Amino acid sequence: MNTGSELGGTVDERVSVAGVVLDILRPTSAEDLIDEAAYEIDERLPYWADLWPSGRVLAEELAEMPLVGTRVVELGCGLGLPSLIAASKGAMVVATDWYEPALAFVRINAARAGVSVHTQLVDWRDPPPCCTRRETSHRWSHSSRSCAVRAAR
């Protein structure tokens, strides 16, 4: 993945969550990533490219939970801060999004943080079984719905 000119540049943002300090690599400007052609097809906007306040709050909540050995799925992960925190607390994490660049940044930031986060590209119009209501309530110990939290912002 090109994390430079194709994305209009990147920036490191230091984030502290409950004593865990992470240097998050993210695009410099989400606005610069808007693709008019993609928007015309299904109104996609690069919401994933920002560290949202709601994602920080969700990460803080996860940091207070006993997560060692639990399974966590983050739906609509964006840059995946909650996933990174859950993984740092010992959870087995799957971060999902419908933007491959978002997942690439999650993988980069997980490697930089020394944690393991699995990623899965998901088309929300036809989600795989891991992301359905039935599966998230039975298969996963915790499901963090970042996209729903962000939409309520």
Structure description:
The protein is α/β, with parallel strands linked by helices and 153 residues long. The protein has helices at 36-42, 53-63, 81-88, 100-113, 133-138, 146-151, and strands at residues 10-17, 20-27, 71-75, 92-97, 117-121, 142-144. The strands form two sheets. A four-stranded parallel beta sheet has the order 5-4-3-6. It has a two-stranded antiparallel sheet with strand order 1-2. The chain is globular and about 45 Å long. The protein starts with 9 loop residues before the first strand and ends with a helix. Residues 1-5 and 147-153 have low confidence and may be disordered.
Q: Segments where pLDDT lies below 50 for 5+ residues?
A: 1-5, 147-153
Distance between the amino and carboxyl termini? 30 Å
- Mean pLDDT value: 83
Structural class: alpha/beta
In the sheet with the most strands, the strands line up as 5-4-3-6
Q: What overall form do the CA principal axes indicate? A: globular
Helical region count?
6
Give the total of beta strands.
Answer: 6
Helix coverage percent: 25-40%
- Radius of gyration equals 15 Å
Order of helices and strands: EEHHEHEHEHEH
Strand content: 15-25%
The main pleated sheet reads as: 4 strands, parallel
Question: Nutshell version of this structure?
Answer:
The protein has helices spanning 36-42, 53-63, 81-88, 100-113, 133-138, 146-151; strands spanning 10-17, 20-27, 71-75, 92-97, 117-121, 142-144.
Write the layout of secondary structure elements.
Layout: E1 10-17, E2 20-27, H1 36-42, H2 53-63, E3 71-75, H3 81-88, E4 92-97, H4 100-113, E5 117-121, H5 133-138, E6 142-144, H6 146-151
Parallel strand pairs: 3-4, 3-6, 4-5
Antiparallel strand pairs: 1-2
Helix pairs in contact: 2-3, 3-4
